[in-house]
Amino acid sequence: MVLSKVKESLLSVIPIAAIVVILSLTVAPMEGSEILSFLVGCVFVIGGMSLFAIGADVAMIPIGELVGSATTKTRNLTVILVVSLLIGTVITLAEPDLTVLASGLAASINKWVLISLVALGVGVFLALSMLRAIFGISLRLLLFISYGVVFVLAFILSFLGKSAFLPLAFDSGGVTTGPMTVPFIIAMGLGVSRISGRSETDESFGFVALASVGPIITVMLLGFFVDTGTLLPTVGSASDASLSAYGATLLTQMKDTAIAIGPIAAFFLVFRFAANRNMPVRTFWRIVFGILYTYIGLVLFMTGAHAGFEAAGRSIGYALGENYPYVLLPLGCLIGFMIVAAEPAVHVLNEQIEKISGGTIKKVKVMLTLMVGIAISVGLSMLRVLFTFSIWWLILPGYAVSILLSFFTPKVYTAIAFDSGGVASGPMTATFLLPLATGACISLHGENYVMNYAYGLVAMVAMTPLLVLQLLGLVMSIKARAAEKRVKALPPLEPTLVSPAEAPLEGEEKGEIEVIDL
């Protein structure tokens, strides 16, 4: 297991590392210390991804399944809603991606106000997801209503002259479903579907999709009370990229990750001794060590992402924006294509898709489709940085088409598509792609343009999977129907008449006739 996870992590990170090194030696020169810092970050990220993947398999997913099934078994609607709200809020409070986003705006918005509102949004919509699974409510209907509310609020904010808040709101929906929340929420869906008696394939997905909508709504509501003219992100400098940054970053991530893992570990202990006393001792200790793997993995991953990748992304973006701005478009597409494979939660989702679908939906096919989608989204985001047009021109038609596609695509693909949208926009997007866009935007237009045109990249990364995966499902469905028609069009098989002389003797078909050699 360990070797396979390390191999998977290596294959995910090496392409990005190669691109950055080539750029640093050609069109976007970097100091030797910056390159070394980035390469050390790659080692941290690879080790962290490997340990996190093991921890997710051994601890996070089993805990989520246990909690989901045990909560549903109570058949007590109040208990189900309260526990879901509590779990969704607590896990999101600890989400590393959200901390990255909130810290970048700490000068304008109180960090904990933003984090708390986002966490509340996830908690409320996770409870809504539980109701959907229990009562069999259509995911398409809930998505249609939820995004309807989102766009009504967005139009009102734009009418009030607060459209600068929209990229932040949509980004908040993308960063909440990261390496902490995704394994837990997906596993909860699986546990609920097993108890509810409905198809695991149909009901297990869609939890992440709805959890991503809640934060968009709560952050938009915050926009009514915040002066968008004061929104300025905290932007670091290229000098941050040095090996000396690793010590402070490691200590910070140890503390932040302990805050992230602590509530889940405490919840598991309470659940173990209060609701599942018959758990085998071996299973208990297996989960405990899995939580430890998850902690160490996240510390290493987030340290490498912050100390190595974030500074490199900002430096490359600034250099390209200053000297070769139109290289940003093809480069953005290339990095977007590669970087989704380095998101830890993407691998967790793909494993679950193949497992729950019984192998009918291959994880390789989903991954390749996601890579194409993210390439398109990052390319479009770089176009926004270059030509400074509103995110409305991309988000509104994108979500409108994705909702329309949901009426024609098999519902399992719709659920997977909306789940993947939240999952694809993880820590690598927040700590590498967003600094890349920020650096380019500063060099081209200045810091005052960052909120309007660099932010929103996470939202784009979260949106395009909705389109490409639903299109994949639609194509697969069309092919299946065409194959079914071809089978029906075949002429029926007619029985073949055999003459008595050609007919086998009794027992010949079974090989029961004994040949005697005279």
What does this protein look like?
The protein contains 20 helices and no strands. It has 518 residues and is mostly helical. It has one domain (2-488). The longest helix is centred in the middle third of the chain and has 43 residues, at 281-323. The N and C termini lie far apart (63 Å). Mean pLDDT is 81; it is low at 508-518.
Short synopsis of the structure:
This protein is mainly alpha-helical and 518 residues long. It is built from 20 helices and no strands.
List the helices and strands and how they pair.
Blueprint: H1 2-25, H2 32-73, H3 77-93, H4 96-104, H5 111-135, H6 139-159, H7 165-175, H8 181-196, H9 200-203, H10 207-223, H11 245-274, H12 281-323, H13 328-339, H14 344-356, H15 363-387, H16 392-405, H17 411-424, H18 427-445, H19 450-454, H20 457-489
Helix pairs in contact: 1-2, 2-8, 2-12, 3-5, 3-11, 4-5, 5-8, 5-10, 6-10, 7-10, 7-20, 8-14, 10-17, 11-12, 12-18, 13-15, 13-18, 14-15, 14-17, 15-18, 15-20, 16-20, 17-20
